[in-house]
Automatic annotation (TrEMBL):
It comes from the Bacteria. Residues 16-113 form the Gfo/Idh/MocA-like oxidoreductase N-terminal domain. It holds the Pfam family GFO_IDH_MocA_C3. This is Putative dehydrogenase. Residues 124-244 form the GFO/IDH/MocA-like oxidoreductase domain.
Length: 332
């Protein structure tokens, strides 16, 4: 993931002009050195101890691209050294750690935000814009399917709750963003299907209750070979006046009730507008740009920690429900 972040910095002119990479830290020094070579960052301080490099370089920003179990210590260190911090997801591995990071950022007077890069794509922005327009009325239900079979190798294939913790948060966050509703509770069934090459939790089915009686359902698997969905999921948003579907790639369909006589009145197709702002549709680059703008203007970034913690609550609540077999309250 560090390469994805560095490519976004290198290849986006207004970000490249705003950021100077002054240090690279990895437990394996050779990995950091290889990044420095690949991205022409020979001037950057290379190290294996974050505290030492932070003290030496005194940066304004820490870009946190570590594995989830290291998140709390890395973000805490960055905040303690006066950095604004932009983190990979998930924000933390527990709600206790997430709340502690919220308090630490507030005490330090620094911004801590999370890279939810998949809400910064054209498809999600188009869904949000149509919902906000009121064209399909009040949202009553959101439904998403996610079925792929990636063979990553490495740490993901050894993780517990791998689908929920490492991937489903993108879809959960998008559902919350598009609907504009708050998550209240979740019931989830998690399995590791026959033939899975993951150690645990490669598939999950979850039902969320959102505010205003909106229901969000998620069906997903990371060990589903054959006909796949998009990485962005396949979506159906039901409103009081009509529906919107998106295949996660190029196909949008939206319609409202028609006027045909009989049991079913048919439907009338409507247009799905383009995103209001193209600069919000470039994934990592858009997240980083939003973060930098927030620092310079004093506003909050879209994925600031006290908002993103709601998406984390959806993930951790689903995991708790899967373990207990009971519905879990995630409204706090």
């Amino acid at each position: 993931m560090a390469k994805g972040w560095l490519r976004a910095v290198r290849d986006t002119p207004h970000i490249k002009d705003a950021i100077e990479i002054v240090g690279l830290v990895d437990l394996d020094r050779a990995t950091a050195e290889a990044l420095a070579t690949e991205f022409n960052l020979q001037q950057a301080v290379i190290g294996t101890d974050l505290e030492v490099v932070l003290a030496e370089t005194r940066p304004d920003i820490l870009l946190d691209v570590v594995i989830p179990n290291a998140r709390h210590s890395v973000v805490s260190a960055g905040l303690a050294h006066g950095c604004h911090v932009l983190s990979e997801k998930p924000m933390a591995t527990s709600m206790e750690e997430a709340q502690d990071l919220r308090r630490a950022a507030s005490a330090a007077g620094r911004i801590h935000a999370v890279v939810q890069n998949r809400r910064f794509i054209a498809g999600v922005r188009r869904m949000r814009r149509l919902v906000e327009s009121g064209a399909i009325g009040e949202v009553t239900g959101i439904h998403s399917d996610f079925f792929l079979g990636p063979h990553f190798g490495g740490f993901r294939e050894e993780m517990e709750n791998v689908l929920l913790l490492d991937m489903a948060i993108h879809t959960f966050d998008a559902a919350r963003f598009v609907s504009g509703k708050a998550p209240l509770s979740v019931y989830c069934v998690e399995t590791n299907p026959a033939g899975s090459w993951y150690a645990h939790g490669a598939a999950a089915n979850a039902i969320f209750r959102f505010s205003d009686d909106v229901v969000f359902t998620y069906r997903g698997s990371w060990c589903a070979e054959g006909e796949r969905t998009s990485w962005e999921s396949a979506w159906r948003i039901v409103g009081s006046k009509g529906m919107l579907t998106w295949d996660g790639e190029d196909t949008f369909r939206a319609a409202v009730a028609g006027n045909d006589p009989g049991l079913l009145p048919g439907f009338t197709s409507i247009d799905v507008p383009a995103p209001a702002r193209d600069e919000e549709t470039h994934g990592h680059a858009s997240v980083i740009a939003d973060f930098l703008d927030a620092i310079s203007t004093g506003r909050e970034p879209e994925t600031v920690n006290h908002d993103n913690i709601k998406s984390l609550a959806m993930v951790l609540g689903a995991i708790e429900s899967a373990k207990s077999g009971q519905s879990v309250d995630i409204s706090a």
